[in-house]
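Hi support team,

I've been running sequence recovery on a batch of backbones for a student project. Most finish fine, but this one hangs at about 90% for roughly twenty minutes before it completes. I'm not sure whether the input is malformed or the queue is just slow. I've pasted the structure tokens below so you can try to reproduce it. Let me know if you need the job ID as well.

Thanks,
M.K.
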């Protein structure tokens, strides 16, 4: 299966939620916040309001007063497991998880951020997000001139 075919393959709601949870466990909170802000910003105001209508009744009363449809407020709300779980079980939870997984902040973390150091240890689906080749053609030998890797300088 090529990477293009892998990307086109539709994932189940459970798979999306599992991948979303995995990413939340390996990326820093700041990256997750940026990704959530991006994702919630892509939703229409109506979608964000609908999300709140589904999520707020499932939260303790103290949380309901602190909610707003603003993308940054929603992103901050996702730091806690209760609202995040409620969001994932909402009507658009799968779409939010899917957008989060494919978001620019997540991709940047694994291409140029600290996550790029450990990308070879990430699952294949994470590597596919950024089109990472886990097995370089030269098996790690970047220098092909005589002397650079052999210790013979002259």
């Amino acid at each position: 299966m090529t990477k293009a075919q892998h990307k086109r393959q539709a994932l189940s709601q459970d798979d999306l939620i599992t991948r979303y949870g995995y990413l939340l466990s390996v990326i820093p909170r700041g990256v997750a916040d940026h990704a959530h802000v991006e994702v919630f910003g892509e939703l229409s105001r109506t979608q964000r309001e609908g999300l709140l209508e589904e999520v707020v009744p499932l939260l303790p009363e103290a949380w309901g007063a602190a909610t707003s449809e603003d993308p940054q407020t929603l992103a901050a709300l996702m730091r806690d497991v209760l609202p995040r779980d409620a969001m994932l079980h909402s009507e658009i939870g799968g779409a939010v998880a899917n957008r989060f997984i494919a978001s620019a902040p997540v991709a940047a973390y694994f291409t140029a951020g600290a996550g790029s150091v450990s990308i070879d240890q990430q699952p294949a689906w994470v590597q596919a997000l950024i089109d990472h080749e886990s097995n370089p053609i030269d098996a790690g030998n970047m220098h092909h001139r005589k002397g650079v890797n052999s210790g013979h300088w002259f």
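--
Follow-up from support: It reproduced on our side and the slowdown came from queue contention, not your input. The chain is about 55% helix and 0% strand. No action needed from you.
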